[in-house]
Specification:
Blueprint (H helix, E strand, L loop, with lengths): L1 H22 L3 E7 L8 E2 L4 E9 L4 E2 L2 E7 L4 E12 L2 E4 L7 E4 L3 E5 L6 E2 L5 E9 L3 E11 L8 E12 L19 H20 L1
Parallel strand pairs: 2-13
Antiparallel strand pairs: 1-3, 3-11, 4-10, 5-9, 5-12, 6-7, 6-11, 8-9, 12-13
């Protein structure tokens, strides 16, 4: 009986340790919203959207950053100068001369969270908002990879990842009031009425 109780205690202890490890895992979320602030499902080229990313951690991270990738690259035209970061309740606007959101030829679009204090401490949240324009058709995926880069490491360490996919389709406006046109520019309905008037007038003349 004592042996069984010891085993149960060990299982509970390991479970608590594992639960603590899970709770301490950094998390990142990414989403693309339309102009109404709702998540995009279907959109069209030329539509304006906002990329939103949220990075949270329950452990200290050294020099963290989120790399944002668009697949395909032509899917979105991103306005990096319009980027806004909210870090632990404080708002920061992107400065082209000293940016926290910028294009890097090696990594892609980089949201440098360490721009504020260098490290991100446990419990400090960061949000990113970036304007973009739909510039391609098909399924478009926005991927967010959350890294920290300790001084003793030669490469950044991936902590979390998330992605968001939506569909862009070619615009096909439908208007029930639109009337097909001849090459001459005369509406079919008007042409048909004119023809009926001519035929009707001829028949009426013969009947008289």
């Amino acid at each position: 009986m004592r042996k069984t109780a010891t085993v149960l205690l060990l299982i509970i202890s390991f479970s608590l340790i594992f639960a603590g490890a899970v709770a301490a895992t950094p998390e990142v979320e990414v989403q693309v919203d339309n102009e109404s602030g709702d998540p995009v499902t279907v959109t069209n080229p030329g539509d304006n959207v906002t990329i939103e990313a949220n990075a949270t951690t329950d452990e200290d991270l050294e020099d963290p950053a989120v790399v944002i990738t668009v697949d395909p690259e032509s899917g979105l035209t991103i306005d990096d100068e319009d980027a806004v970061m909210i870090y632990d309740g404080e708002l920061y606007e992107n400065d082209p001369t000293d940016p926290f959101f910028y294009w890097d030829d090696e990594f892609g679009w980089v949201w440098w969270i360490g721009y504020v204090y260098g490290d991100q401490l446990a419990g400090e949240d960061a949000q990113l908002y970036v304007s973009a324009t739909i510039s391609d058709v098909g399924n478009i995926t926005v991927l967010a990879d959350y890294y920290q880069w300790p001084e003793e490491s030669n490469l950044p360490i991936l902590e979390a990842t998330d992605d968001f996919t939506f569909l862009s389709t070619a615009a096909e406006p439908v208007n029930g009031e639109t009337v097909p046109m001849h090459n001459t520019g005369v509406p079919l309905a008007a042409a048909a009425l004119g023809l009926m008037s001519i035929v009707g007038g001829t028949i009426y003349g013969k009947l008289r």
